[in-house]
Amino acid sequence: MSSNVESPLAELTGAKQTMASWARIIESYKNIPEIYKDSCKALLQDRSPFPYVVFAPAISDYKQRTTEKLLCEMDGIFHVWERSGKQIVLTAFPLNTVYSLEVGSVLLFSWLTVSGLTSEGVSGSTTISFNTATQRFLAPFIRQMRPVPEIVSETEWQKELAKFDHLSSSEFKFMNYARESLVRGDKVICSIMQPKIRKHIFTLFGQRFYRTMVLSHLALLTNREVIFIGEDERTGEIKGRGERYGGVWQYVPLRNIASVDITETENGFLTLSIKLIIAGQQLDKIFEASNKKELEEFQKKLAQSVGG
Description:
The chain is of the alpha+beta class. The protein has two domains: 137 residues, PH-domain like, CATH 2.30.29; 152 residues, Pleckstrin-homology domain (PH domain)/Phosphotyrosine-binding domain (PTB) (PH-domain like). It contains six helices and 17 strands. The strands form four sheets. It has a seven-stranded antiparallel β-sheet, with helices on both faces.
């Protein structure tokens, strides 16, 4: 007998499969998945009140299946228990040693990558993947790793948001992304928008063909962070719009920045390089030469902000 994929049973099965990929809050030690209990017993079993704990199931990435994780922040330390087969590996990051935070979201797939010094004093990084529908459960962890909101008047706040109004006609998506990335109380010092950079490859029957060399991205300096907002190279362009689904946000606290440099590449582009104090990490972003003046201003303002 043939199956009917349109039947209510098929729909229910699909719904259950989707829900199985959702992150969820664990409200007590007894509700923690059994395989994690031995590893987190010392920290969580007798904790009262029970801390904020989230279980993030394994979900399908663009190219592979991710691992499931149990997450918790306690006493200024972000704990990540990761399941690898029958083994559980714990990585803990003191919040004040997190030197980079990446948040990505493309349709139903989202991720959070935390990079910093672990409790053992070594540089480490972990990526938590989750269904975008449950991003609200990961949001408290993201907020703990970013600047604390400050009390400012609505007039002051709207003034900062308005600094991205110039993007409304050319980069509407990035205008909204930039506004959403700010924490209340942030002061926008400067920003640089770099539209995608394309290289002409060949012409066929009068039609020019291009290769995208650099995806659209925005560099943003506030009084507390450097924020990079870009597109994910793994996604295709939205037909007829020239832009890609979703975005990727990188947050770097100013306290972790050692220096900033600008260099010219062989193909005439400019590279903005931000070197971090912890672990000698470096972030590189490519811009067109036409942005040189704005980049030099960005470099100057950032150097002043970090005392360099």
